[in-house]
Structure formats: structure tokens, C-alpha cells
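Sequence in, structure out. Go.
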Amino acid sequence: MITNAIIRATKLPVSGPYPTLDPFLFCVYHKDEYPADESGGKMQTIFPGNGMDFDPDKPYRMYHGHHIPGFPQHPHRGFETITATMEGLIDHADSVGNAGRYGEGDVQWMTAGQGIVHGEMFPLVHATKENHLRLFQIWLNLPSAKKMVNPSFAMFWSNDVPVWTSADGKASVTVWAGDYFLDYKQQNSPPPDSWAANPNNDVAVLHVTIRPGGSLVIPRSNEDGVNRSLYLIEGHESNVKIDGKIINEKVCLTMDSTKDISIELDEQVNEEVQFLLLQGKPIDEPVVQHGPFVMNTQSEIRDAFMDYQRTKFGGWPWPQDDMVFPQDKGRFALVDGKESRPPPSSETCNEDE
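Output:
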């Protein structure tokens, strides 16, 4: 399977995290077909979870949730989370007092830094239609000099996320991060302490879609010394051609970032293909991880546990561990005490009519 631009191909797991390269630590693709709310507005599933539901053979998973699917409050230190959504809605709450409901193309970027506790719940907001959810959660490492910065939170509404579309409409790229396919569009600025904030680190997170008969060339990286991974996440049975090689399974392709990547899909297939691209210069520092903490030494991991036990990273200011907001709240972001909402053109109706 080795071709000019493809260095290595690794089959993707059926469930769980994808393989990643420095500066990324973790990448998981959530795809859950949650039903309509039948709980009378509680936004709960009819059948409770057991707190550890990750079964890939079910139409949806409860994860660590019991009545509402998702991830109740839990701590992080030493890295950033990028939550890039395609379908569905997520409720966020954290120990700093920030909160939000977002989805349908929105991107949330959170710097855990010296420590934060947050929850990510997937409430069944809609009662008259299914609550399908599709998103990526990506962990981007912080260098040692930035691991103890103050936590921060940024929300990029879907209408502010750059999307490039080919002239024939058969290929598109959603630019969640990076200076690619912008065509004079303004890219959202990563949090100031992020590894991605320095353009020399050439961090990019792209969602690529190719429809039947479409083609696309992803240009070589802007900088040298960049790690680049291309994940085929949907449509693998369409026999998409990547750098001249037909790929027919869900894989992670480690790419030579100094070369362009050509992608072609035959006109006769019935299904589009979708990819995730992650790239960036490696931080090239020791990585020591224990659960939700990522530092450079074992001693720093011990300190993280002791600090969390002592301070709870500021405590949990919300009335429940699996915090969700009213069903008719709509998409919003509460940051530093100020609430904002997406422009009306990108707002979705969360209250069933």
C-alpha cells in the first residue's frame, strides 16, 4: 500500500481512539443515533446506562452517562481539547463557570492548562425528531512551557468556520484549524497559549468530503518537519483513490507532508467519502499520561493528582454532575460571565414546534 505520499497505513479500530502523531494525543470519532426525547422534556433516554457504555455494535452509546448520554464532570490538565461537530448538540459546563450548548458545525476549543473540570453531555433536545450526533474530539498537546497556563474556552459558531467548495461542488473542506483552503476567508484564532497559535507550527485540522465524480488535491504542508495523518472515516467501500492507490477500508494514512495528496472518487459510486486530516510540527517533548492528565514527567502527574484532590481545580459550580440546560435554551456560549449566541442565520431551532 506504500505509494509516493503514503508512508504507512494503519487500519482504524472499530471503536475507541484513533492513532495519532505528535503534537496530537488523542482523537475519537463519535457517531451516535440517539432517539427522539420520550422523557417529557427531561432530555433523557428511556433505558439508563451503566456508566461505562462504549458498545460499538449499538446504534448509540451512553458513555459515562446514566440517564443523559455523555461525559459528566471530569478533570483535565496539560493539553487542549478541540471538539468539532457535524451533527447534533452538546452541553458543556466547567469549573471556571463557562458553559454552552453547541453543535451543527460549531467548534469548541478548550485549553485545560493548569487544570479544569468539565462535562460534555449529549441531551436529547428534540422530541419530534431523532437526536443524531456526529463529532470529533481531539486532544492537542501543550508544550512544557504552557502546561500550567490558565484555562481558557473559545467557541467558533458554524457560520464562522471556513468551508471551501470546489467549482463543480463535488469536493469540500471544512477548515477547523489551519491556513489551508481559506480563499481569503478569515480563520478563527486558536487560544493564545495553544501550540496552534504559532503559524510556524503549521497545525491543521480539516474535514474533507468528496462526492461521486469529485477530486481534490491537499497541498503539501506550509512548513517542513510536519507530522501529517489522513483518516478515511466514511465511504470506504467506494474505493476512493488516494495518491493513485485505491483504498477500501477505514484507515489512518501517515503521509509525507512534503508532498501533495491527490484524492479521486469515481462518478459511478453511490456514496461520498469523508476524511479527517490532522497535522502539525511535533512538540518533541516527553509525554507522560495518566488518564485525564498529560504532563512531561511522572512527578508532574503525581502533582496533578494531588492538586486535583486538594483543590478540585476550582470546584464544580453547577447543581448536577451531568449538567444540561433547558430544552428550549438554544445554542449559546457563556464565557467569563458573558453570554453570546450564534447569528440568526446559523441558529437551529432546538424547541420542537
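Check: Residues 298-311 form the longest helix (14 residues). The mean pLDDT is 95.
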